[in-house]
Structure formats: C-alpha cells, structure tokens
C-alpha cells in the first residue's frame, strides 16, 4: 500500500481529468457513399 497519500490523490485526479476530457472527433470508419442524385418521375 502506498504511503504517499498525495500520490494516490494525484492519480485519482489524473484519471478523473482523463475521463472527463472531451474526445476529439475521430474519422468515421466507414467512408460515406456518394449520393445518387437521380430524378424520379
């Protein structure tokens, strides 16, 4: 068991900050299919 209580608190704060950090928008795994602009009628 760690004897440095502040090290434990720092680790908890670091984990909480990582958990609450907004994630960057990742590129979509599936490429978008081109739209088929066909006129119906």
From TrEMBL:
Basic and acidic residues biased stretches: 26-41
- In residue numbers, the region (Disordered) covers 14-41
Domain of life assignment = Bacteria
Protein's UniProt name: Transposase
What organism is listed for this UniProt entry? Streptomyces coerulescens
